[in-house]
Automatic annotation (TrEMBL):
Keywords: Methyltransferase, RNA-binding, S-adenosyl-L-methionine, Transferase
Domain of life: Eukaryota
Record-given protein name: Methyltransferase domain-containing protein
PANTHER family xrefs: HEMK METHYLTRANSFERASE, MTRF1L RELEASE FACTOR GLUTAMINE METHYLTRANSFERASE
Domain Methyltransferase: 419-500
Gene source species: Podila minutissima
InterPro entries: DNA_methylase_N6_adenine_CS (IPR002052), HemK-like (IPR004556), Methyltranfer_dom (IPR025714), N5-glutamine_MTase (IPR050320), PsdUridine_synth_cat_dom_sf (IPR020103), S4_RNA-bd_sf (IPR036986), SAM-dependent_MTases_sf (IPR029063)
Length: 605
């Protein structure tokens, strides 16, 4: 209780008493709200009589205030009760909410804890004369600037009881150990500084931890520390000596950070959150947040800090029993991960549509240690019921391309039922899987594969031999934009098939980084200029030159068919590109998307 009085001087004659109180004792009353409550409690008198807030003062009046500090603080800090996980006569473990400074938390404690019968009189007398409450401004490093040694808050170890034994940042929440008596405070402070109090910080940080594994061939390959993994402490990093252990709780994909890793970090006591954040920052995996030694997450408007004390354990100083308490992680952690995961999946879906445009599945069959597709590791891939050799020089066969095989076989039955042998030209043959699957399904048929890569042709030749089709195939170097330069192709083919690259080359970096495995495939087989239509335009130019040529040596027969694979939404523009030919039909894939277009040589006018 603070009691003050003052005489009204000439300059205050005619003033309202409330203005007089605010002018002379604002440091005590602090705000108009407190001032009104002070009048409501009858704590302001004029000449010995309780005054109304609007009373006019006269020169010589004596104004007295008996300000109930405890009542004022209770009106601020007593409205919100703290969560108490453990309490006895000597100590308590209390949850500090995020957004509250340790000063505010200290003021809230008396209104949330039971009075201790063991407390001395001078422990509790401070409750009626609390220091003036001033909310701290947000401090990036609440703990690092503590006046008491060993990372404790400004309210830690103070004479006021109850008091906190360790501090947390304003933006953080979690378990705080509180002493309720002077003797307990002294004992707990010694335990805190000697490492006898254990705490675990749950944090969300940027990125994912990679480790180096040595395989049987003594080669190193990267892998991630997944859930339940223990991450070794890097002794070279800042504050490494402060960290006892780090355990991975979960790994979440994120557009902004690629990955978010949730960790349980156990520092050595008395080191706390600042040391945890400094260490993680120095490992290039800063904690998500807007405080010091943290890094905000793009598009996350939460100005808090993804750090919370979720576990504390210690031996009770009097009972000699283990006190071990756990607190569930903050709801905002779960919300953040869910939001990032949802946004990531939306982006993935968008990018997947771009990949499907090129007939590419989401590459899930890859080795996580090397991020290489399994097909490249084993060197083989199934396609249309056959097994084909593949290498990094060839595109991995996709199930969507089987639509092109089916379209070709259907066209043969409808248009070339009596033609034998059927001659097939595969432009951009790669591993040869498309050509060989067609020839294997059409008895007696003959085929030629052309590709710009000799390494790819070597794989195709091996596949031809593997399936006993060498006597019915030949393979040649060639460019789809200059087919006339290859005399081996003047065979009047009945069917020309082509699965050209048709992903937009301007998006190559984005797609290969987003979908693990695609970066190992040859870009020339995936991406094309001019929004993905460049290869179609080059092929159309070659075919149009062939059809207009007066030479008796032709690539296509007069009844020849051209069957192309296309990406989603590309049908209209590809039809326009091959407008010099007769469009026959489009064939949909299993997802009911246009995947193949068939053209025929237009009759001569």
């Amino acid at each position: 209780m603070k009691e003050l009085e003052a005489a009204v001087l000439e300059q205050d004659n005619g003033s309202r008493v409330w203005k007089f109180v605010m002018q002379h004792w604002k440091a005590i009353v602090q705000s108009r709200e407190h001032m009104r409550k002070c009048f409501k409690r009858g704590e302001v008198s004029v000449n010995g009589s309780v005054a109304e807030v609007t009373k006019l003062l006269l020169t010589g009046d004596v104004v007295r205030i008996k300000f109930n500090t405890r009542a004022a603080h209770e009106s601020i800090y007593g409205r919100e009760k703290l969560t108490v996980l453990y309490e006895d006569e000597e100590l308590a473990v209390v949850v500090k909410p995020s957004g509250k400074t340790m000063v505010a938390f200290g003021y809230m404690l008396p209104f949330s804890l039971r009075p201790s019968s063991m407390a001395r009189s001078n422990d509790t007398e401070h409750m009626d004369d609390l220091p003036e409450a001033e909310e701290e401004e947000e401090d990036d490093n609440d703990e690092s600037e503590f006046q008491i040694q060993q990372n404790v808050s400004p309210t830690v170890g103070q004479q006021r009881i109850p008091c906190s034994i360790h501090g947390l940042e304003k933006a953080s929440n979690g378990l705080v150990l509180v002493a309720k008596t002077t003797e307990t405070r002294s004992t707990l402070m010694k335990m805190h500084n000697s490492g006898e109090i254990n705490r675990i910080f749950r944090v969300i940080c940027h990125g994912v931890w990679k480790k180096q594994d040595t395989g049987p061939d003594n080669t190193s390959s990267s892998a991630y520390y997944d859930a339940d993994s223990t991450i070794p402490i890097d002794a070279e990093c800042l504050d490494a000596k402060c960290i006892q252990s780090i355990k991975v709780i979960s790994v979440t994909e994120s557009n902004a950070a690629e990955y978010l890793t949730t960790l349980d970090v156990k520092p050595f006591s008395p080191f706390l959150g600042v040391s945890v954040r400094r260490y993680l920052m120095s490992t290039q995996h800063p904690v998500v947040g807007n405080s010091g030694n943290s890094k905000p997450l793009k598009a996350n408007r939460d100005k808090g800090l993804c750090s919370a004390v979720v576990h504390v354990d210690f031996i009770h100083p009097t009972l000699s029993t283990l006190i071990s308490l756990d607190l569930g992680e903050p709801t905002k952690f779960q919300q953040l991960r869910a939001r990032e995961k949802k946004a990531y999946e939306r982006r993935q879906q968008s990018d997947l549509e771009e990949l499907r445009k090129g007939g590419l599945e989401n590459v899930q069959n890859f080795d996580r240690k090397t991020e290489r597709p399994i097909a490249y590791i084993v060197g083989e891939k199934d396609f249309f019921g056959m097994r084909f050799k593949v290498s990094p020089a060839t595109l991995i066969p996709r199930s969507s391309t089987e639509t092109l095989v089916k379209a070709t076989l259907s066209a043969k039955e409808e248009r070339l039922a009596n033609k034998s042998p059927v001659r097939v030209l595969d432009v951009g043959t790669g591993s040869g899987c498309l050509l060989l699957a067609i020839l294997n399904s059409i008895p007696g048929s003959l085929g030629v594969g052309v590709d710009i890569s000799q390494e790819a042709l070597d794989v195709a030749i091996a596949n031809s031999a593997e399936h006993s089709l060498s006597d019915r195939t030949s393979f040649h170097i060639g460019d789809m934009g200059r087919l006339q330069d290859s005399s081996e192709l003047f065979q009047a083919f009945d069917i020309l098939v082509c699965n050209p690259p048709y992903l937009d080359s301007s998006k190559s970096a984005k797609l290969t980084s987003t979908f693990v495995g695609t970066e190992h495939e040859p870009p020339v087989a995936l991406f094309a200029e001019n929004e993905g239509y460049g290869a179609y335009e080059m092929l159309a130019k070659s075919i149009e030159l062939d059809l207009k040529s007066t030479s008796p040596h032709k690539i296509l027969a007069p009844h020849g068919l051209v069957i192309l694979e296309i990406g989603n939404g590309m049908g209209r523009r590809v039809r326009e590109t091959f407008g010099f030919m007769k469009f026959e039909r489009a064939v949909a894939d299993n997802q009911d998307c246009e995947r193949s277009l068939m053209f025929s040589v237009a009759p001569q006018e």
